[in-house]
Specification:
The complex is a heterotrimer. By secondary structure, chain A is an alpha/beta fold. In chain A, 51% of the residues lie in helices and 12% in strands. The two termini of chain A are 34 Å apart. Chain C is an alpha/beta fold. Chain C has two domains: 107 residues, Nucleotidyltransferase, domain 5 (2-Layer Sandwich); 147 residues, Nucleotidyltransferase, domain 5. In chain C, helix 5 runs antiparallel to helix 6. The chains are: A alpha/beta, B alpha/beta, C alpha/beta.
Chain lengths: 373, 436, 257
C-alpha cells in the first residue's frame, strides 16, 4: 500500500526510472477510453496524465474556463514535469481534455500524437465498427512510430496483463464490501491511481504480493459511516483522507479514475482489436458517453447497494460540463430512493476548511440514522 | 452631429425575417394543439415527416436571454434547484428551467418535447443536449456521433465514420416511422436538400459581401437572419425566398456604398455568440465608428470555410461533389446532406483543432480588432479562445477578452466593466468616441 | 504650464500637479465610496493650497481611474492604460511595459513608440481585487499592511492557499491559523497566492521585459509581494518613489501635451 502511495507521489521519477531501465518510450493519455492494450503491445508504457495541483501562473495565457484537471496537466507540461513523455494520445472524451491535448501539442509540436475517435454514442449498431476502424488506424500509426509490427501475440499478452490487473483490483475492491473493511478508501484509491501510471506487469506483482497480506490486516472499526464517492475524475486522495479523519470511510466509488477504470475486462476473441473495441465501448459509462441508454444511475445504485453505503458524495470539478449536466438526473434518482447525498464543487486545490465543514456536517447528518437503524 | 462617411439605411428585408421568425415561434408553441410532434434537436431531414417540427434549446435559450432577463433568472434558479451545475450552459438552463417551471415567459404552457434527436457537435453540452427532456419524461431518444480527429483529412479513415452517420440517420428515420406511424416523404426530403443548396449559395454570397469596405451589414443585422434555415427551420421555399431577397438587397447596398455604420473606420470581429441580453454593446462600439462584421459562428449559415482554389478563405459549397451525383433515394439524399467530410461544420472543428483558422477569417474580412468573449460556462464557446487571441495578436489584430457566464446567462457579465474595457481598448488604439 | 492629473481609484484618490514638467505637488486620500466627488474636491483644494496655487492657475486637468466621471471639473478624461503609458515614459524614458497593481485591478500595458500603447492586458475576475485582498488579509492576520509587507516572502513554506479564488484562499488561510500555523507562514502563503495570480497576468499576451518594466500602484509598496513577484516572473521591476501616483502623473503629463 505504501509502495503505491510512494510511486504515485513520485510518479515522474518512477516513469524516468522505467525508461532508463527498459529503454522504452512513454505515452501520456488524457482519457480512460484510450485503448491502452494496443500501446502496451507496442512496447510503449501508457501513463495517465493526472493533475498535481501545482500553483499555476502559466496556463492563463492559453486557457480559460477549463476544469482544474485539464489546466493542471498543461501546467505540468509547460513546467517540464512531463519531459519524459514521448507522445500524447487523446481518445475522444471531453472538450477540456481535448483542449489540453491540443494546446500541449501547440507548445511541443514534436511529440508523437494521435487522436482516437471513440464514439459518444457508444451503444449504436455501427459504433463498434467506427471504434474498430479507429483502432486499426491507431495501431498503424503506433507501428510506424515504434518501427515494428504489433503482433497478435503481443496484443494477447497485453490483454492478459491488463485483464489480470483488472481482476486483481476487483479483488481489492471486493474487500471493501466487508462490514469492517481491511482497506481504507484512500488506500484503495492510491492503488487505482498508481495502476494508471505504472507498468501493469509491475503493478500486478505488487498486487499479488499485497492482496494476501490484506487478509491479516486488522479491520477498520472506527469509521462507521460508509460513503460512496461519485463525480469528476480525481488525481489524489485528499478528499478520501479528509473523510477518514472525520470518522467515515469511502467504501466505493464511481469515478473515471477509480472503479470505472478497471471494472470490466476484455473478453478475448480472435479479432483482438474488436475485442478491445467492445471492452472500451462497454465499460461503465463516463458521464460524457452516458447519452442514450442511461446506465449510470443503475450502475451507481447497484454499487451503492452492494457496498452497503450510507450516503453519496458527489464531488464535481468546477467547469466539468459532462458531470454538471448529469447532475440533475443523479440527484433525481438519489432523491427518489431517499439516499442521502452531498454535492459540492472541487477546484485546483481542495479548499480544506470549506470541504471539512461540508463533510463534517454530512457525516454527522447520517450518523443519527445509523444509530436508529 | 457626427459626419457620416457613407450613407446608411435600414434593411428592407428585415421585416420579412421578423415575420418568419415569429411564424416559427408560433409553430413551436402550437405544435401540440396541431397534433404535430415536437422533437428536441435540429436535423435537416425532419422536413420529410408530415407532422414533425424540430427545436433546439439554442436559439430558445438565447431568445429568452434577449427578451426577458427576469424570467431567464427564474428558469436558471429552477434548473439549479434540480441539480444543474451553476456553471452549465445558460441556453440549457434557460430552456429546461422553463420546462421545470412548466411555462414560457408569457405564461403559456411549455411546449413539451415528444422525442429527442440530438444535434451532434464537438461541444460537450451539445452531446448531452436533450437529456433534460429525456430524463424528465419518458420519451424516445436517438443519438449520433460527431467524428473528430486531428491531422489532414483521411478519406479512408472517414469511411467508417460516414457510414456510421448514414446508418444512424436511416435508423432514426425508420424508428420514427415505426413508433409514430408517420410516413417519411422521400421526395419532399430530396427536394428540400436541393433547395438547401440554393439557400447556402445565397448565404455564401451575403457572407462574402461583408468583406466589403464599408460593410453593408453589421453582425447585429446578420443575427436577424443567420439561423433561418439552420437552427430555425421553416418552409424551404419561404426560406429560399428570404435569402434571395437578402442577397439581392445586400448586393445593391455594396454597389451603392450603403454602410451598416456610416462612420465606419474600424472593423472588428468576434468569435461565438455575444451576450444576448446586452447587444447594445454593438451600438456602443459604433460610437467609435467601429463595425462588427461577425464571426465564423455568425457566418455559419454559409457553411464550413476553406481555402478556395485562388487561395481565398471562403465558405465552401457543402454539396460540392454531389453536384454530379444523382439524388434519387433517401440514402442518396442523406449521403449528400452528410457530405464527404466526416468532420462536419468546420468552424467548430477549426476551433478545436486549428485555432489559427481564426486568423484566416480575420484577414479575409479585413479586421482591425477582435473581441473574444470568455464564456466560463460555455465549453464550446470558450475552448481555444485564449490561443486564438494570441494568434490574432501575432498577425497584428488587437484583441480584447472579456468574461461572462455564457451568452444566455447574464449572471457574471459586468456590463459597466465591459463598457469600461471597450473604452480602454479603443482609446489605447488611439480612437476616441465620435459621439457620446 | 501647470497641469494636473486626478486618478480616482476604488480605494484611493491620487492627484499630481505638474509645472513645466516638474512635480510640484502630489497627494492621496481614501476615495470614500459614495462620497467620491466630495473627497476629490477636498483633496484638490488641499493640494492647491499646498502648492500655493489657485484653480485658475491650472491650465488643464485630466481625470482617470474608475471614478473619473466623478471629477466634474476635469477638462478631459482618459483611460487608465493611456495614463499609465504616459506616466511610465515620463519617469523611465526607456520603459517598455508598465504593470499597475491597484486595489481592484491589475493592468499590464505594453508600450510602443513614444507613448503609444501596443497592448493592454487586464485581470480576469478571479484575479480581481488583489490589493483589496491583501488589505483584508492583513487584518485577518492581525497585521498592519507594513508588517505584511515586511515578511520574508521567499522562505520555504509547506503551506498553500487556494490560488484560483480569493474567497477560498481566505478560508484556507483561516483554516491554517485554526490549525496553529504561524501568522508569518500563512502570510507567506497568501503573498505567494497573490504573486501567482499576478504572474499569470504578466505571462498573458506579451510578457514584460526583464529590465524595463515599471511597476505602479499602491501594491508596489508591499516589499514582500514585489519580492515574490520578482522571483516568480524574473522581472526586475523599476519602482519609483512615485509609483503609487503613476497613473495620476501620466494624466498630468498627457494634459501638458
Amino acid at each position: 500500500m505504501e509502495k503505491c502511495r510512494e510511486i504515485l507521489k513520485n510518479r515522474h521519477q518512477y516513469a524516468r526510472e522505467w525508461k532508463k531501465r527498459t529503454g522504452g518510450k512513454i505515452i501520456g493519455y488524457y482519457e480512460p477510453y484510450m485503448p491502452e492494450e494496443v500501446v502496451y503491445a507496442a512496447g510503449v508504457l501508457p501513463v495517465r496524465l493526472l493533475a498535481e495541483h501545482e500553483p499555476d501562473d502559466v496556463t492563463d495565457r492559453q486557457m480559460y474556463g477549463n476544469c482544474a484537471c485539464s489546466r493542471d496537466i498543461l501546467n505540468q507540461f509547460i513546467r517540464g514535469r512531463y519531459d519524459y513523455i514521448d507522445g500524447i494520445i487523446n481518445a475522444e472524451g471531453c472538450q477540456w481534455m481535448l483542449n489540453a491535448f491540443q494546446t500541449t501539442l501547440n507548445n511541443q509540436p514534436t511529440l508523437f500524437n494521435h487522436y482516437v475517435f471513440v464514439p459518444d454514442y457508444v451503444d449504436g449498431k455501427t459504433s463498434k465498427d467506427v471504434m474498430y476502424s479507429e483502432l486499426k488506424v491507431f495501431k498503424t500509426a503506433l507501428e510506424k512510430w515504434v518501427g515494428k509490427t504489433i503482433t497478435d501475440e503481443a496484443l494477447d499478452d497485453a490483454i492478459e496483463v491488463y485483464n489480470t490487473n483488472r481482476r486483481l483490483m476487483r479483488q481489492v475492491y471486493e474487500l471493501r464490501r466487508a462490514d469492517h473493511p481491511v482497506i481504507l478508501g484512500s488506500e484503495a484509491m492510491d492503488m487505482v491511481l498508481a495502476s494508471q501510471i505504472m507498468d501493469k506487469r509491475e503493478m500486478n506483482q505488487i498486487l499479488k504480493e499485497e492482496i494476501p497480506k490484506l487478509a491479516d490486516r486488522k479491520p477498520v472499526v472506527d469509521k462507521g459511516v460508509r460513503l460512496m464517492l461519485i463525480g469528476s475524475e480525481t488525481s489524489d486522495t485528499e478528499l478520501e483522507k479528509l473523510v477518514e479523519s472525520l470518522g467515515a470511510n469511502i467504501v466505493i466509488d464511481e469515478l473515471c479514475t477509480g472503479s470505472c477504470y478497471f471494472w470490466n475486462e476484455i473478453i478475448p476473441q480472435f479479432d483482438r482489436l474488436m475485442a478491445i473495441a467492445l471492452r472500451y465501448l462497454g465499460r461503465p459509462h463516463c458521464a460524457l458517453k452516458d447519452n442514450n441508454w442511461r446506465r449510470r444511475p443503475a450502475h451507481i445504485h447497484q454499487l451503492y447497494e452492494d457496498y452497503q453505503a450510507h450516503g453519496v458524495i458527489i464531488a464535481k470539478q468546477i467547469y466539468c460540463h459532462p458531470h454538471g449536466t448529469d447532475n440533475w438526473m443523479i440527484w433525481k434518482f438519489l432523491r427518489e430512493r431517499n439516499i442521502p447525498f452531498h454535492y459540492f464543487e472541487r477546484d485546483t486545490t481542495l479548499p480544506h476548511e470549506e470541504t471539512r465543514l461540508r463533510m463534517e456536517a454530512f457525516i454527522n447528518m447520517i450518523k443519527p440514522d445509523l444509530v436508529y437503524k | 452631429m457626427v459626419k457620416q462617411k457613407w450613407e446608411t439605411r435600414p434593411l428592407e428585408v428585415w421585416n420579412k425575417a421578423k415575420e418568419l421568425r415569429a411564424k416559427w415561434q408560433k409553430s413551436i408553441v402550437t405544435a401540440s394543439s396541431e397534433k404535430v410532434l415536437l422533437a428536441q434537436g435540429n436535423v435537416n431531414w425532419a422536413v420529410g415527416f408530415p407532422a414533425l417540427r424540430v427545436i433546439e434549446d439554442n436559439p430558445v435559450g438565447a431568445m429568452m436571454a434577449n427578451r426577458n432577463d427576469a424570467f431567464s433568472r427564474k428558469c436558471r434558479l429552477a434548473g439549479e434547484i434540480e441539480g444543474w451545475g451553476r456553471e452549465i450552459c445558460g441556453y440549457q438552463l434557460n430552456c429546461w428551467g422553463a420546462m421545470y417551471l412548466g411555462h414560457l415567459e408569457d405564461g403559456s404552457p411549455f411546449p413539451m418535447r415528444d422525442m429527442v434527436i440530438p444535434f451532434p457537435d464537438p461541444c460537450d453540452q451539445h452531446t448531452k443536449r436533450g437529456q433534460a427532456p429525456m430524463d424528465y419524461s419518458p420519451i424516445p431518444r436517438w443519438q449520433a456521433n460527431f467524428p473528430l480527429y486531428t491531422g489532414p483529412r483521411d478519406p479512408e479513415r472517414e469511411k467508417a465514420m460516414i457510414e456510421d452517420k448514414v446508418q444512424c440517420t436511416l435508423q432514426m428515420i425508420e424508428d420514427i416511422e415505426r413508433i409514430y406511424g408517420q410516413k417519411f416523404d422521400d421526395e419532399k426530403f430530396i427536394e428540400a436538400m436541393k433547395l438547401s443548396r440554393k439557400i447556402h449559395a445565397y448565404a455564401r454570397e451575403v457572407s462574402l459581401f461583408m468583406r466589403n469596405i464599408p460593410s453593408p451589414l453589421s453582425v447585429k443585422d446578420l443575427y436577424s437572419f443567420y439561423t433561418i434555415g439552420g437552427l430555425t427551420k421553416l418552409d424551404p421555399e419561404e426560406t429560399l425566398d428570404l435569402w434571395k431577397s437578402l442577397r439581392d438587397e445586400v448586393e445593391w447596398r455594396v454597389k451603392n456604398c450603403i454602410a451598416a455604420v456610416g462612420t465606419e473606420r474600424y472593423r472588428w470581429m468576434e468569435t461565438h455568440p455575444p451576450p444576448w441580453h446586452f447587444l447594445r454593446y454593438y451600438r456602443y462600439m459604433e460610437k467609435y465608428g467601429a463595425v462588427c462584421i461577425g464571426s465564423q459562428y455568425s457566418h455559419m449559415m454559409a457553411g464550413a470555410f476553406e481555402f478556395t482554389e485562388d487561395g481565398t478563405w471562403a465558405p465552401r459549397d457543402m454539396f460540392g461533389s454531389f453536384e454530379d451525383k444523382p439524388i434519387r433515394t433517401r440514402e442518396d439524399a442523406i449521403r449528400a446532406m452528410i457530405g464527404e467530410d466526416a468532420r462536419g461544420h468546420n468552424f467548430k472543428v477549426d476551433e478545436v483543432i486549428r485555432p489559427y483558422a481564426v486568423c484566416e477569417f480575420a484577414r479575409a474580412y479585413k479586421v482591425d480588432g477582435a473581441i473574444l468573449p470568455l464564456w466560463r460556462c460555455g465549453v464550446g464557446c470558450t475552448v481555444t479562445r485564449k490561443e486564438q487571441g494570441l494568434r490574432l495578436s501575432q498577425i497584428g489584430v488587437r484583441v480584447l477578452h472579456y468574461e461572462g457566464s455564457q451568452p444566455g446567462d447574464r449572471t457574471d457579465l459586468d456590463e459597466n466593466r465591459l463598457l469600461d474595457m471597450l473604452d480602454t481598448w479603443m482609446e489605447s488604439q488611439g480612437l476616441r468616441k465620435l459621439e457620446d | 504650464m501647470i497641469t494636473a492629473g486626478i486618478d480616482v481609484g476604488l480605494e484611493n484618490l491620487k492627484i499630481v500637479i505638474l509645472k513645466d514638467g516638474e512635480i510640484i505637488a502630489a497627494g492621496s486620500a481614501p476615495s470614500g465610496g459614495g462620497k467620491r466627488g466630495k473627497r476629490v474636491a477636498e483633496l484638490w483644494e488641499a493640494l492647491l493650497k499646498e502648492a500655493k496655487l489657485s484653480r485658475g492657475d491650472v491650465n488643464k486637468i485630466i481625470a482617470t481611474g474608475q471614478g473619473k466621471t466623478d471629477v466634474g471639473f476635469a477638462s478631459d478624461k482618459v483611460v487608465e492604460a493611456v495614463a499609465d503609458a504616459h506616466g511610465a515614459r515620463f519617469l523611465y524614458p526607456s520603459a517598455t511595459s508598465v504593470v499597475d497593481i491597484g486595489a481592484d485591478q491589475t493592468r499590464v500595458v505594453t508600450l510602443g513608440e513614444g507613448t503609444r500603447v501596443l497592448e493592454v492586458v487586464l485581470n480576469q475576475k478571479c484575479a480581481a481585487g488583489m490589493g483589496l485582498f491583501l488589505t483584508r488579509m492583513a487584518g485577518r492576520l492581525d497585521m498592519t499592511l507594513d508588517e505584511l509587507s515586511g515578511i520574508n516572502a521567499d522562505g520555504n513554506t509547506g503551506l498553500r492557499v487556494n490560488d484560483t479564488c480569493r474567497v477560498f484562499a481566505e478560508l484556507d488561510a483561516l483554516g491554517w491559523l485554526n490549525r496553529n500555523a504561524s501568522r508569518e507562514e500563512v502570510a507567506r502563503a497568501v503573498i505567494e497566492m497573490v504573486a501567482v495570480r499576478i504572474n499569470a497576468i504578466l505571462n498573458d499576451k506579451i510578457k514584460p521585459a526583464i529590465n524595463s518594466t515599471v511597476l505602479f500602484g499602491g501594491v508596489s509598496r508591499n516589499s514582500a509581494l514585489v519580492s515574490a513577484l520578482r522571483r516568480r516572473s524574473g522581472i526586475n521591476f523599476l519602482i519609483s518613489d512615485r509609483a503609487e501616483y503613476g497613473c495620476a502623473l501620466g494624466a498630468a503629463v498627457l494634459a501638458a501635451e
